[in-house]
Design goal:
alpha+beta; four-stranded mixed sheet; six-stranded mixed sheet; phage-related protein like fold
């Protein structure tokens, strides 16, 4: 296994396509938690790409009469899902005066801007993957568009040219759309139980949570709603810390029907310009089975130096990618109608 060199080391090398593990490798805090969990798949051969979907069989247990001939046979049928590859790029530039200015902490302005351009592209890919954008093929001023996870998990409203069959679509019981204040541990358990029933097995879901939703889920452990009618407060301590500090942050929730791991994410439900979308960017969440997701590149993340045009040095980072979901069913989504915590 080769050592990962990291994007900031790779980014100073011209005209090199980056390995996906290098793009994701960062020191310290993960700023794109969904991409950090997302594996890279095989390169699509066309911008429109389909893949087979296997549905769990539903078998009965009726007996047979002695001597009966073989009756109707069963076979494992397959459906398919389809999406589109989208070209995303970020152009960086060093302005004339920036190159002439000595900036504290920046020794090489060109290298600095080039590195920031890669970070911008990475964040743009994260926003794209977590958006409610639907599939479309280039038409007029509208480019090719891939389907974001928030649309993959939608119960309806998909582009008719890129349908999700009823056997594969997320159940309405896996989508919470009441107020955020009413989303408690019991409501979360219902989402998980419904997803596990659809999948016929316990599920492990990674929840990409907006800040308000994450705060609401942290509060699940702050009160015992069954102990008293007054919602008695609980205290949780970090037993490994030397000072046994109090903590109110919970990142793992285990229920009989599965496990939820939470990840704070600021890139949810953004529009194509990066702006927040209503209340969902802050209070929404996508509960994802990461075994069912991958990103496929027609063109891997790479850099081009652009010709000098009188404005000064510039270049572009770009990639042509598709977000693939192998089975939407068995996952969940929180789309609250109001984001007040109480």
């Amino acid at each position: 296994m080769s050592l990962r060199t990291g994007p900031l080391t790779e980014s100073i090398q011209s005209n090199k396509k980056l390995d996906w593990s290098d793009v994701l490798h960062t020191a310290g805090q993960v700023t794109e938690p969904f991409l950090a969990l997302l594996k890279a798949g095989k390169k699509p051969i066309n911008k429109e790409h389909s893949w087979p979907v296997y549905e769990l069989g539903r078998s009965g247990y009726a007996g047979e009469l002695d001597g009966a001939v073989a009756g109707t046979a069963n076979n494992q049928s397959r459906g398919s899902l389809k999406s589109v590859a989208q070209w995303v790029r970020k152009v960086w530039q060093v302005t004339h005066f920036a190159e002439l200015t000595e900036t504290h902490g920046v020794k090489d302005e060109i290298k600095f801007q080039k590195e920031q351009g890669l970070l911008d592209l990475r964040q743009g890919l994260e926003m794209l993957c977590l958006s409610a954008q639907d599939c479309s093929v280039q038409s007029g001023e509208t480019p090719n568009q891939t389907r974001g996870a928030a649309m993959w998990l939608a119960n309806s409203g998909h582009n008719a040219e890129y349908p999700i069959a009823s056997d594969f679509v997320v159940s309405s019981g896996c989508i919470y759309d009441s107020t955020l204040a009413a989303f408690d541990a019991a409501a979360c358990e219902v989402l998980l139980r419904t997803a596990s029933m659809d999948r016929l097995g316990a599920v492990t879901l990674d929840a990409q949570c907006g800040p308000a939703l994450k705060a609401r889920m942290d509060d699940f452990g702050a009160h015992d709603i069954k102990a008293t009618t007054t919602n008695a407060a609980l205290k949780v301590y970090n037993a490994q810390a030397k000072d046994k500090e109090f903590t109110s942050v919970i990142d793992f929730f285990q229920f009989s029907s599965g496990l939820v791991r939470t990840h704070l994410n600021y890139n949810l439900w953004r529009d194509s310009a990066g702006a927040k979308t209503s209340i969902l960017s802050n209070a929404g969440g996508l509960f994802l089975d990461m075994k069912m997701w991958e990103i496929a590149f027609m063109d891997a993340i790479n850099h081009d130096d652009l010709p000098f045009d009188g404005g000064n040095v510039k270049g572009q980072w770009h990639a042509t990618a598709m977000l693939k979901c192998f089975m939407p069913k068995g996952q969940a989504m929180v789309t609250p109608s109001a984001e007040a915590l109480s």
